[in-house]
Amino acid sequence: MPEYTLFDARVTLLTPLHIGTGRDLLLDYDYAVRGGRTWRINEDALLDAQDVEDLAMADALARTPPAQLLRESDFQIDSPLFDYVLQGIPRSRQAGAQLREQIKNVWRQPYLPGSSLKGALRTALAWHGFAALHMRPDVGKLNRNRKWAAQGIERDILGRSPNYDLLRALHVGDSDPVGSDRLMLANAQVLTRGGASAPIELEAVRPETVFRLTVKLDEGLFSDWARELGLGSRAEWLRGLPTVVRAHVEERIQTERAWYAGVQEAQEAQTFYGELASLGLPENAFVLQLGWGGGWDSKTLGSRLRADERFMENVIDKYKLARGRRRPGDAFPKSRRILVRVRQTRDGRAIEQPALPLGWAMVEMIRRDEPSPEAAPPREEPVPEVRAERPVTVEGPGVPRAPSAPEPSEAPVAVPKAPAVAPGPHTGVVVRFNLIQKQGTILVDGSELQVEVRLGQLRKGVRYLVAGARVAFTLVQDDQGIHPEDVRRV
């Protein structure tokens, strides 16, 4: 009998995700802005294309901002002069403007690092354990070093050292990569109840992107080793991981809803958290926030510490956590990082509207020994991406709209007309499904027909669909056109 349990995990993004490399890309050196898109420059290919034999001239070109070497005709989606193209443009296009880089593999394909998911799970487990072990905030447990402030508390919950840590039993692999066409340009800012400030431009992965990865629970570590350390009973926390995470996230969602209720211009974020609270996911699924933008609460014990106001004020003062003027008892943290929609007025002014928080995702964990109709397909070794097809145009932070017209230098592409599909029973594949908007698209088998599907058209008991899933349904033709009914997974 194996001493471990394997899960196929599927992570579906609900809002744009940014996991940074720590590097800022520089305008005109690393990227250029043209035609409503942001173009990531392949500097080596661009310099090679100059075909200059004179060494002095080659040296002068090497000191020239790469974007200045580009001609208008170079801005083609399939051009080797660019690594990839982002839909959207940053607000700042002045000299020295910067763009925070998204983590990718060597082929410029974004992926979800296993460490990012495991870190979020670790926070939820520590939050749960703090209450399960009847712990109380204790200043004496705090480390002098701000970076390791909660190390003593964490060791009491999860184990005395990395070698004797409960999460040694949880292995989370990196996800398979996705195409660079899943990247987008995201404009974000720091939002307070007094208004917005600190604009930030980011590369991000688009909503509805699905990452697939493997999670392994090492049951062998729950034997003599765990009992010797007094961690044996805590194995149930890992076995009941979805339940633990859901409890943590439910508390976070309520906190965020209350905070955004006090910000008049952030109605969209408040509505989002209301929808998030009512998803009604199955037992093996949960939502959580990943990557940049989650703030202090997403990476700490959060509400467990705030329960003791005196302790919390001590922490804020000791580690200088507050920025600007703050009185004892004021809310902490006082700001949020949020995506913004940017539109231009007729007189050229930019109007920014707070939109959605970053990094929210749904995670489904499917046991390998309990196959699911939607279980992840066999994992394949990633191969270099030749060139992604034209990305879908994105308006604002992850809200798709119709593809833009071809660039003037591109020939229009004839789109074949989809064959007629008769009403009646059919099968197909889910192209996309937005859990928050509760609608998506299905490609009907044996045709090019894509039909819109909404929550009310799903079979009773089916609460959502996932991109790539096989479904069966009945096509109905009425005065509203052709649409699916009784949609269920197969």
Annotate the secondary structure layout:
Blueprint: E1 4-13, E2 20-26, E3 31-34, E4 37-41, H1 43-48, H2 55-62, E5 82-87, E6 98-102, H3 114-132, H4 151-158, E7 170-172, E8 183-192, E9 195-205, E10 210-218, H5 224-228, H6 235-239, H7 241-260, H8 267-277, E11 285-289, H9 303-306, H10 309-318, E12 335-344, E13 350-354, E14 360-367, E15 394-395, E16 399-400, E17 424-434, E18 439-444, E19 450-454, E20 470-478, E21 481-489
Antiparallel strand pairs: 1-10, 1-14, 2-6, 3-4, 4-5, 7-10, 8-9, 8-12, 11-14, 12-13, 15-16, 17-18, 17-20, 18-19, 20-21
Give a description of the structure:
This protein is 20% helix and 29% strand. The protein has 490 residues and is of the alpha+beta class. The strands form 6 sheets. The protein has a 5-stranded antiparallel beta sheet. Strands 19-18-17-20-21 form a 5-stranded antiparallel beta sheet, with no helix packed on it. Strands 9-8-12-13 form a 4-stranded antiparallel beta sheet. A hairpin with a 2-residue loop joins strand 3 and strand 4. The two termini are 30 Å apart. Mean pLDDT is 84; it is low at 372-411.
The proportion of residues in beta strands is 25-35%
Uncertain runs with pLDDT below 50, 5 residues or more?
A: 372-411
| Spatial ordering of strands, largest sheet | 7-10-1-14-11
**Class per helix and strand makeup:** alpha+beta
CA-atom Rg in angstroms? 25 Å
* Largest sheet report: 5 strands, antiparallel
Mean pLDDT: 84
Q: How many H/I helices?
A: 10
CA distance, first residue to last residue: 30 Å
Tell the overall outline.
globular
